[in-house]
Amino acid sequence: MRVVVYGIVVVLMILHHDVWNWHRYEPLVFGVIPIGLAHHVGISLAAGVVWFLAVNFAWPRDVEQIEREAAEAQRSAGHSAGGRGGHA
Amino acid sequence: MIAVASTLMSLLLAQASGPASAAASASAPAFSQDGLNALILIAVYMLILVLIGCGGSLFSLGTAKDFFTASHSIGPVLLLFTIFGTTMTAFAIIGSSGEAYTGGIGVYGKMVSWSGLIHSLCFFLVGIKLWAFGKRYGYQTQIEFFRDRFESHNLGLVLFPALVGLVVPYLLTGLIGGGKAIETMTVGALPDLFARSKGAVPFPVGAAAITFIVLLYVFFGGARGTTWVNVFQTIVFILIGALTFTVIADKLGGAKQATANVAKYNPTFLKIGSGEADQAVFDTQMAQFEAKKSPIKPREPERVPPMVFLTYMFIPLSVAMFPHLFQHWLTAKSAKSFRLSVVAHPILMMLVWLPCVMIGVWATSAMLDGKAVLPQTGVNANLVLPMMVKKLVSGWQGSLLIAAIASASIAVLDSQFLAIGSMFTHDIAGHYLGHDRLSDKTKLMIGRGFIVVIAVATYLLGWYYLQARTVFSLGVWCFTGFASLSPIVFAALYWKRATKAGAYACALTAAGVGLWLCAQSNWGANADYYVFEQFPIMPVTINLAASTLALVLVSLVTPPPSAATIEKFFPRGAAAAK
Asked: What residues of A are in contact with residue B306 (Cβ under 8 Å)?
C-alpha cells in the first residue's frame, strides 16, 4: 500500500503541471472559478484523500516502536522515582 | 516590560502625531465613524487574544518544559489548528490576495496545491519521526536533535543564527501585514491624534501594539496559550475568508459578474499563461481606457514561466525546517495526533486561500456603479484586501471584517517568538552555561529576554522594509532559506551515512548561496527575480541543489557516524551504514 500511496503522490505532482489549462479560463466552474484554478482546487482535495490513505495504510512502523520505547522509559523512570519515594 | 512598552508607545505617539498636532486645528483630517468602529473592534479582538493566550497560564505546570512544549499534552484537533494557524499567516491572507492582484490565479498553483502535497509529506515523513525522537530522548528544539544525531556541539552555532536569521523575515510578514491593515482601515478614527496619517493609527503604532499584545500572551501563556490562540485564529481565518468573499461578491453584483468583469478587462488574470489573443484584448481595452470609455485600465498580460511554476514545488519543503513548527510538533500527545493534521491540512489551505485569491483577481477589474473600485495605478499589493473591504463594505460589517483580517495576519508572531525563545534558552544559554546550573525561573527569564530583543529588532526592520517589499516576496525568500536547509533534516532521519561535516557543509552552502541569490534580487525588492533569464527557475532550485550536493558529497568523503549514534536513531539495521 505504501507504494500505491507514494505512486498517487507522484501522479498528483505530474497532474499539477496542467499546461493544457494554461491558455484558457473556460469553462468557469459554477460560473465563477476558472478551469485552471478549479483544477488546482481538485489537486488540494485529492491531496487530502491521498494523505488519508497514507495515515491509514502506510503509517510508519518504526515510529510506533520509538513511541513504545519512550513510554517504557517514562514508566521505568516513574517506578524508580516512586521506589525512592517509598524508601524515604 | 509594561513600563518599557508604555514609554515606547508614548514616543511613537509623539512621533506619529508630531508637529502636525500643533497645526491640527488648521488641517485636521475628517473624522470617520467607520474608522473608529474598526479601531474599537481591533482593540476588542486583541483583548480576546490576550485573554485566550493568558488563559493558558491557568493550566501551566510552572516549568520551562511546560512553557515551551505544553508537556506534550496537545491532541489531534488542537494540533491540526495550531499547525495550520502557524503556517498560514499574513502571507496567506494579505499576501495571497496581493499576489493574485499582481499576477493572477497562478499563485494558487504555485503555493497552495504544491503545499497541500508537500507540507503533509513533510508532516508525515519528518514531523512524526521528530516528535517520536523528541518524546524518546527529551529534545525541546531542533538543534538539540541535530547536535545529538550529528555528534557535534558546535553545529548549533551554525544552525542557530541561520534559523533565527530566517525567522525574522517571516516575523516581518506578520508585522507588515497587520500594521498596514490597521493603518488602512482606521483612517479618520483619531484625526486629532494622528493628523499626519489622516487620522489612522500609523504603521509604527499599530505594529508596536501588535508586538506588545503578542509578547504579552506568549509570556504568560507559553506553548499552551499560543496553541489556544492559534486555534481561535484559524477558525477566524476560515470564517473571514468565506465571509469576505461572500460580502465582496455581493457588492460587485455577484460572483459571476465579478469574474465576468475580469474576463472582459484582464482575462490573463484568470489563466496561468497568456498569448496573442490576450495581447489583443489588452490593446483594445487600453484604447477604451485612454479614450475614457472604460473605467478599468487593463494590465499587461502576465504569464508564469513553466519552470518557475514547476520549481515552486521546492518552496513548501521549508516546513520541514521551521523551528516554530518543530516546537508545535513536540506538543503532540501521541504520534497518532498527527493523523488529522496530515489529512486536513491541504483542505484547510484551500478553504483559506481560494476566497482570497478570487478577491485579488476580482480586484483587477472591480467596478461599483460604473466606476473602478481601486485606483488604477500605484496600488500597494499588501493593501489590496483591506482596500477592497474598505471601499465595498461600510459600517460595522466592514469594520468587523477588517479587524479580523488585521488581527488574523499576526497569528504567526506568537509561535515564532516562542520558538526563538526556546532555541536561545536551550541551544545557547542552557547548552553553554549548563542546563543543570540554570533554574526553571532563570531559563524562562532568559527565553523571554531574548524574545524581547528579537521583537524590537523585527519591529525596527519593519519600518525599513515597509514600502520596499511585498509580504509575498518577503515570505518566499524566507521559505527559500528554510527549504535549502531541509536536506539536513531529511538526511538526519533517513540517511545513516549523513555526517557531521556533511551537515556543516549543507548549512554553510545554503547560507552562502542563499545570500548571494537574495543579493541578486536586491534583497527581495525585485519580486520577479528568477535564476537564468532565458530559462527562468525559482532561486530555491539552485540553493536546494547546492546544499543537497554539499551534504551528500561531504558526507561520503568523511567518516560515518558512530555505531552508537546509528543504533540510537536507526534502531533497525544499524549495520547497513557501514
From this structure: 17, 19
Q: What sign does the CA torsion over B393, B394, B397, B401 have?
A: positive
Per-residue pLDDT of B350-402, as tens digits, reads 998 899 999 999 999 999 888 999 988 878 887 888 888 888 887 777 777 77
A24 Cα to chain B: minimum distance (Å): 6
Residue with cell 485573554: B51
Q: Is the peptide bond before B355 cis (omega within 30 degrees of 0)?
A: no
The minimum CA-CA distance between B46 and chain A, rounded to whole Å, is: 32
CB spacing of B357 vs A37 below 8 angstroms: yes
Indicate the SS3 state at residue B433: helix
Residue type, B299: R
B265–chain A Cβ distance below 8 A for any pair: no
| Of B523 and B577, more confident | B523
Chain B: nearest CA to A31, how far in angstroms? 6
Q: Is A69 on the interface with B (CB under 8 A)?
A: yes
Of A31, A43, A70, the CB nearest to B135: A70
Task: Give the span between the Cα atoms of B405 and A44, in whole angstroms.
Answer: 24
Q: Which of A51, A59, A61, A76 to mutate to test the interface with B (most CBs of B within 10 A)?
A: A51
Q: Which residues of B touch A70 (CB under 8 A)?
A: 132, 135-136
pLDDT exceeds cutoff 80 at B205: yes
Q: Which of A16, A51, A67 sits opposite B132 (nearest CB)?
A: A67
Q: Does B130 touch chain A (CB under 8 A)?
A: no
pTM: 0.85
> Which residues of chain A neighbour B132 with C-beta distances below 8 Å?
63, 66-67, 70
Q: How far apart are CA B393 and CA B386, in angstroms?
A: 10
Write out the DSSP string of A30-73.
TTTB-HHHHHHHHHHHHHHHHHHHHHHH---HHHHHHHHHHHHH
* For residue A12, pLDDT beyond 70: yes
Q: What percent of chain B has pLDDT over 90?
A: 32
Q: What is the DSSP letter of A25?
A: -
B307 inside 8 A of chain A by CB: no
DSSP of B248-317: HHHHTT-HHHHHHHHHHH-GGGGSS---HHHHHHHHHHHHHHHTTS-S--PPPPP---HHHHHHGGGGGG
Decide if B450 contacts B513 (C-beta within 8 A): no
| Contact between residue B236 and residue B407 where contact means Cβ atoms under 8 Å apart | yes
Q: Is the pLDDT of residue B243 over 90?
A: no
d(C-alpha A76, C-alpha A73), whole Å: 5
- Write the pLDDT tens digit of every residue in B5-59: 444 444 444 444 444 444 444 466 788 888 888 888 888 888 888 898 888 777 7
- Report the length, in residues, of chain A: 88
- Asked if residue A16 lies in contact with residue A40, where contact means CB atoms within 8 angstroms, the answer is yes
Distance from CA of B76 to the nearest CA of A (A): 13
Question: What are B48's three cell numbers?
Answer: 480576546
Sign of CA dihedral A17, A18, A22, A23: positive
- Buried-state track B111-141, b at ≥16 Cβ within 10 A, e below 16: bbbbbbbbbbbbbbbbbbbbbbbbbbbebbb
* Test mutation, B69, B83, B113, chain A, max A CBs within 10 A: B113
